[in-house]
Design brief:
Pectin_lyase_fold/virulence, cell wall biogenesis/degradation, secreted, mainly beta, three-stranded mixed sheet, binds 2-acetamido-2-deoxy-beta-D-glucopyranose, about 10% helix, 23-stranded parallel sheet, Pectate Lyase C-like, Glyco_hydro_28, signal, disordered N terminus, globular
Length: about 425
């Protein structure tokens, strides 16, 4: 979308003419009570630019142009003071040339953030529909004003009703590209109940500016979603860079760079007693991790339920299966390049790491190289009750301790069977 044509000669610009036409169309449609939307409309959203709430103007643009139209955020800052639910869109193009800045009124958000229906998490914005394209052109920014949240929760992981920035909800055949997400309130985004979504050229950075950590600022979480591709992501945060959770299938993560967070996560999963959930057919390749804790890791809850989500749970069923992680470059990672735990439980409780019935099968790592801090290449703590982790393959693992100059050759295993390419020691 040529922004210059808007800025340049507005009256001559085709966009501006369509915009004028669309106002007329909307006016006539409303007058006749036929419909409150029209196809091929362009809605340019005007910001108040005085700190007043821009939510009403944004919601009205989605109302008018959400079905077959084009919604344009200009190169300016929009202040968001209210929750937004813009779902059920179709064939909608959303161009973000500026910044959406969420307000710091934590009292408001704690009372109004919208429940996402999983892990008691909630969200400031629900966005979804069929064939949506969201383009930020490399500079369109969603700014959650997260520092106020990091200061409020002071490192507590799940704080009830602390909202994630964006929930991509019931989206199908859609694309998100060229977007920047900074200082997210909680998780940057979740992709929920969505299929066939591409997220490409995405920059995520949630960095605290004081001693309160930017914890639980996951770059993205997938839940109940199929065929999701993450390509060319840069994530710098204080938690999972990208995390695949309950019923995430056919997921690709590629050509991405992670800084400081925990790396690429599967889980946590198995949090809901007797509920059957899976993570299946995952392919990650060409990932570089700078000072992350792990490169790739898996975490399931124990087999015993202790408390309830978000902070408690356990006893879930299901499996993680057919996972390939290939070509990971690691630079000064802090802990094991590869890690499995089935010990996740209510914080402060010593969980029984052998009780989980959640299965982990067919996991393959290939060509992990670079520098780290551990003499272990992998630590795999698999649960006895699940029958252990089966068919784990690790090839071309070459991570050298930067202090020791010794290549990590340790493979710590609990209940790991049918291994290929390495030996537990
Ligand atoms: C902010 O701008 C809007 C739209 O221009 C105007 O209606 C409103 O009165 C202004 N508010 C303040 C506090 O200046
Ligand atoms: C957006 O506007 C600012 C000034 O308000 C300008 O510096 C910047 O170059 C503009 N960005 C784009 C991509 O047009
Ligand atoms: C929470 O929001 C509801 C309406 O949505 C309002 O009635 C109630 O007073 C609010 N409570 C607080 C503590 O702000
Ligand atoms: C969002 O709007 C849709 C359509 O009106 C509605 O079905 C859904 O319940 C709303 N979601 C939330 C979280 O309010
Ligand atoms: C989480 O949600 C469930 C039901 O959705 C509810 O029973 C439980 O009390 C909630 N937990 C917290 C800590 O709010
Ligand atoms: C993230 O932001 C912090 C501070 O704002 C900055 O120091 C850091 O370089 C950024 N990370 C990336 C990858 O751009
Ligand atoms: C690997 O990913 C990086 C970072 O996105 C990219 O610059 C590079 O071109 C990718 N390499 C290949 C072989 O695609
Ligand atoms: C998750 O996937 C499992 C296995 O395919 C299925 O039984 C279960 O109903 C799914 N759960 C949801 C909420 O979609
Ligand atoms: C395993 O996952 C890969 C993607 O990494 C997919 O191409 C393949 O079809 C899957 N295998 C099975 C048996 O589903
Ligand atoms: C491991 O990496 C180091 C440093 O890059 C290199 O010198 C060494 O030859 C590699 N070893 C293997 C077995 O590939
Ligand atoms: C690390 O070991 C390699 C090969 O054994 C050697 O060439 C290199 O000089 C060593 N580097 C340091 C900093 O000791
Ligand atoms: C897999 O491991 C189990 C337990 O060690 C063993 O009984 C079985 O024979 C192994 N299967 C293969 C194909 O190696």
């Amino acid at each position: 979308m040529a922004l210059s044509s808007l800025a340049g000669g507005p009256y001559r610009s085709p966009i501006f003419r369509i915009f004028l036409l669309s106002i007329l169309l909307v006016a006539s449609a409303n007058a006749n009570h036929i419909s409150n939307w029209n196809h091929n409309e362009v809605c340019v959203i005007h910001a108040t630019n005085n700190g007043s709430d821009d939510t009403p103007a944004i919601l009205s643009a989605f109302q008018r142009c959400g079905q077959g139209g084009n919604i344009i955020f200009q190169n300016t800052t929009y202040t968001i003071h209210q929750v937004m639910n813009t779902t059920g869109l179709s064939d909608c193009q959303i161009d973000i040339h500026g910044t959406l800045l969420w307000s710091t009124d934590t009292t408001y958000w704690l009372n109004h953030s919208m429940d996402v229906g999983y892990q008691n998490q909630s969200s400031a914005w629900f966005l979804g529909g069929n064939r949506i394209t969201v383009n930020g052109f490399g500079y369109g920014t969603l700014d959650g004003n997260g520092q106020v949240w990091y200061d409020l929760v002071k490192g507590q992981s799940n704080y009830p009703h602390r909202p994630m920035g964006l929930t991509i909800w019931n989206a199908k055949d859609s694309t998100f590209q060229g977007l920047r997400f900074v200082q997210s309130q909680m998780w940057t985004m979740a992709i929920l109940k969505s299929q066939n979504v591409l997220l490409e050229d995405i920059y995520v950075n949630s960095t605290t500016h004081n001693g309160n950590p930017a914890r639980n600022t996951d770059g993205a979480d997938t839940i109940f979603s199929d065929r999701i591709t993450f390509r060319k992501w840069v994530v710098d945060n204080g938690d999972d860079c990208i995390s695949l959770k309950a019923n995430s299938t056919n997921i690709i993560v590629e050509d991405s760079i992670f800084h400081r967070g925990l790396g690429l996560a599967l889980g946590s999963i198995g949090q809901y007693l007797n509920q059957f959930e899976t993570i299946e057919n995952v392919y990650a390749q060409n990932i570089t991790c700078f000072s992350t804790r792990y490169a790739a890791y898996i975490k399931t809850w124990t087999g015993q339920q202790v408390g309830y989500p978000p902070n408690g749970g356990g006893g879930g069923l299901g499996y993680i299966k057919n996972i390939t992680w290939k070509d990971f470059g690691v630079v000064e990672i802090n802990s094991y390049p590869f890690y499995i735990t089935q010990c996740t439980t209510f914080s402060g409780v010593a969980g029984d790491c052998n009780s989980s019935l959640f299965e982990i099968l067919d996991v393959s790592l290939e060509n992990f190289h670079g520098t780290g801090a551990s003499s272990y290449a992998a630590y795999m703590g698999c649960s006895a009750a699940s029958g252990g982790c089966k068919r784990i393959s690790i090839k071309d693992m070459n991570v050298t301790g930067s202090a020791t100059n010794v290549t990590a050759v340790g493979y710590r295993c609990d209940h790991v069977y049918n291994t290929t390419g390495f030996q537990c020691n």
